Hints:
This protein is about 75% helix and about 0% strand. It is mainly alpha-helical. The longest helix has about 40 residues, at about 100-135.
Amino acid sequence: MILKLVTTELLVAWRLWSGAFVLAVFAALIACVCAGDFSTARAMWGDQPEAAAGLINHAFIYMGFNVPVVIGALNILLTYVVDLQRPRYALWQLAGVGPRTIRSVIFLQALFLGLVAFAIALILAAPTLNLFLNTLSAPLRTEADPIREVTLGVFEFSIAFLVFMAVVLLSALGAARKARRTPILAAIRTPEVVNAPLSTTRIVLAIVCAIIAIVSTVLLCFTPVGYFVLGQMMILVAFLFAAPWVSERVMRLWVALLPGRKASWYVARESAKYNVTRSHAGISLMVIACGLGMVTGVAGLWSEPRTAGLAIAVFGTPLVLVLYAGAATIIMTSGHRRRDTTLLTISGATRTTALASAAFEALIFTLTAGIISLVVALPFVFTPAPAPNATGEVKVATFLPLVPIPFVLALGIVLMFVAIARPVIQAGRNSPAAEMRRSGI
């Protein structure tokens, strides 16, 4: 029975699971690239030890940027997948399916997706690793000639497989526990998906991290004592702990300063206020993407055109993962947008107004992320930290951390608009009467 539930639910809810599956493929490919770095370095260690050391360095840098992003994004997406299927889990309980069985089904679904994702990643591993080693990651190597042959070792890929599956299954653990606690009442009343209130633990951790960031930054600005990276990363970690509260308050604060005379702006403003209480992930993940870009700016990777390829190699993958996860969460939690568009049209608004409100809402989310990112960037900008460039010359990275932010926000607003406007466009393809019947109005 469990296997039948696993396969049936994956087919029925394939639209929800597809978002997590695509992210799992990216995560598996990252694991394979790191494993390929290690296996290729091991094969060439005897003849080219310096180049092998560069590959190992690349693997650690790549893991450092991507592993936290993968863990966070998988947790977010799997949690939303389970939240949106709680009415089905309640119906299972009415049919006699126990909480342990529900938990087992979710674990097996995550296991199946992980196995398929890793199989696809194995096919893409060799060409992807060859691209990194021969082009984008060239500045990390000491040898002028590109590495033309990529070694895919069994031992390294076995370790990558075990680590990847552990990440997937541990990410599904919280979602599975939440699913087994679904009340039967959810079968007749769809539960609202809202941001959970900040726990006391998260509030304390956020305050502690913020204090550490401020103290570290002040020490470095006025004394030779302190650790530069600590102040940078702690302010970002502090935001992550307080992200639901900060995202909502910052949005409400700056949006309230602008008048809402235009209909499309008023609708977008009120919709954004409502939707930020359902999911702050779109804003939070965009801030994380800006934070990762700041790290590459501090390292001086954007100071010269020759190092731009290296910056793309290091920063590109986590940027894509973070923005994809943010757009996916907005799509997952926007089931009401199609109904709202229909009601807006019935009330006399044009489809152009609905589409313009979607564009304004994407702008609100993006500008909110931009405002928070500028605050997060303060330790990056005002701390006098030396950053050597490709020629070995030491420069003070004053405003280099801000360089990636416009690019992140430009890409983010495009993805946000596509995610928000998608149900609006879908609702415009049918007549209002057909959409009313579909939405049960």
